[in-house]
Structure formats: C-alpha cells, structure tokens
Amino acid sequence: MNNSVTNTARLLGAGLRALLVLTLVTGVVYPLVVTGIAQGLFHDKANGSEITAHGRIVGSSLIGQSYNLPPKKGQQTPEPDLKWFQGRPQNGLGANSVNTRYQLILSGATNLSADSKVLLKQVQDAKAAVVKDNSVPGYTVRPSDVPADAVTSSGSGLDPDISPAYADLQVHRIAARNGLSVAQVEKLVKDHTAGRTLGFIGEPRVNVLELNTALKDLVAEK
C-alpha cells in the first residue's frame, strides 16, 4: 500500500514538473523569442504594416479604407468623396448590421456566380458610376476604359490596392477636384505604383491609402 501511494505521488510530482517546464518553455520562452525575432527583423509587418502620416497612424497597408462624404439624413449608402482616389468595390459578404463597406467583422467574397443577375447589376451600376464620376471637362471616360478591378470586389472584400489602370483613370478627376495639374497627379501615381513581387508574382498595384496620404501632402504644398 505504501509503495502504491509513493509511486502515485512520484508520478504526480513528475507530471507537475513536466507541466511547469513545458508551460514555461512553450507559454513564455518560445513566444518571447518569436516576438523578439519578429520585432527585430520584421518590425513593420509584426505590428500590422501600419501607415503613419505626420506622426499619426492612419491605417494599415493591408486593409482598404473608404473615402466617402458624411452620409446625409436618411441616406443609407454614403456618396464617395471624389477628391480622393477610390478603391475597389468592397461588397464582400454584403451589408448588414455587422458587415459594412470597409468595416467588415467578417471578410469574404460575394460568392455570386458569373451568370448571376445580382452580380451583373452590381457590375453595370459600378461601371456607370465610374464613367460618370471620372468624366470631367476635357476628359471623358468610356465604358471600355473601365478596368475589371474598378467594378468588382476582391475575394476578401478588403483589398487595399487597385491596378495602375484604375489609378490612371482617376487622375483627371483628382487633378480637377484638388486644383492640381494632370502631370502632378500622374507622377504621384507613378511614384506609388509597385511592381510584381520578386519581379514575377502578382500584378503591378497601387496602394490607395498610401496614394491618398501622398495626395494630401501634395495638396497641402500648393
């Protein structure tokens, strides 16, 4: 009987010591080491790829933002503020009490099929809006000029980037709305166009938040 109690106590003691050691190693030491390496070598990415302007964090380069006018009384869908570059449609999972444009608690695609009448209507409406919003005196946008990313949302519904073609399409509107020359805005887009990752992965892209942050600085210099 004494041997049985002694063996049980010994096994319990060994189990507790193993639990404490493993808790210390996997719950304290390992996370601290990984966090230290991440902060030391990948500080920007480890902290959410934050974008800072004038000493203030204005967002993440990984998540898109909306650039809308304050909604009018009774208005459910705010109008875009056309002095800023606009991102892709962010339909995502649709709009409901917890899932609105660029404020998604859940992210995802619309899951609408290619022959969906709902999707077709969304694309047609988006194309008409892009043509109307970006046609300014002396520059008319044709429906055939509108790139695909201007009228479709991404798989996550939170895409922070647009194609250079969509950014270029907005140049004349941005110049007219902000009192800038077309050449100034074209240079701004060119300076903020990133190429393919490693030269062959993905497509050239323009981060809308970074572009609008630079636009704000350019307008302030006038």
Features of the shown structure:
single chain, three-stranded antiparallel sheet, 222 residues, 45% helix, elongated, 7 strands, 2 domains, two-stranded antiparallel ribbon, mainly alpha
Report on the structure:
The structure is a single chain. This protein is mainly alpha-helical. The protein folds into two domains: 2-44; 51-220, no CATH class. The chain is 45% helix and 9% strand. It has seven helices and seven strands. It has a three-stranded antiparallel β-sheet. The chain is elongated, with a radius of gyration of 26 Å. The mean pLDDT is 87.
The N- and C-terminal alpha carbons lie at a distance of 91 Å
Radius of gyration: 26 Å
SSE run: HHEEEEHEHHHEEH
Would you identify the regions where 5 or more consecutive residues have pLDDT less than 50? none
Q: Tell me the major beta sheet.
A: 3 strands, antiparallel
Q: Using the alpha-carbon principal axes, give the shape.
A: elongated
Secondary-structure-derived class: mainly alpha
Quick check: average pLDDT? 87
* Portion in beta strands: 5-15%
Count of alpha and pi helical runs: 7
Q: Secondary-structure blueprint of this entry?
A:
Blueprint: H1 2-41, H2 43-46, E1 50-53, E2 56-60, E3 99-100, E4 103-104, H3 117-134, E5 161-162, H4 164-169, H5 171-178, H6 182-191, E6 193-194, E7 205-207, H7 208-220
Antiparallel strand pairs: 1-2, 3-4, 5-7, 6-7
Helix pairs in contact: 5-6
Short characterization:
This protein is mainly alpha-helical. It has seven helices and seven strands; from the N terminus they run ααββββαβαααββα. It has helices spanning 2-41, 43-46, 117-134, 164-169, 171-178, 182-191, 208-220; strands spanning 50-53, 56-60, 99-100, 103-104, 161-162, 193-194, 205-207.
